[in-house]
Amino acid sequence: MLYPDPAGVQTLVKERGLFSFYRDGHSEYCGVRKVAPLRSKLAKLDAWRTGQRQDQSITRGDILLREEDTNFPDSSAKRRPSALIKFNSLSEWTSAHIWNYMRKHEVPYNAIYDQGFYP
Domain segments of the chain: what residues? Predict the structure, then answer.
């Protein structure tokens, strides 16, 4: 499990307020709570796997099954001198594939999807 640095969260809240992301967008909020912990974890790895799919949005339409991830380089170059490898194992799956798999294998899901909310 990844967690943000408590001091970083406290500093952000103290300087910007608890709900600053409503005014400032999500970049600082996500940077402290999501990106920094992920960056720290990925610095220790040579590859990682995502659940990104091409059908999730127009900006993901060209996601490949395997790619070099240049968003999270190893700045020290001690662990990994080249790019991090990113496997997007579900990139070619559609929402229908996902739901068929979930039903077949009885994968638990949030009940809000039954109320019409979809990712």
Answer: 1-42
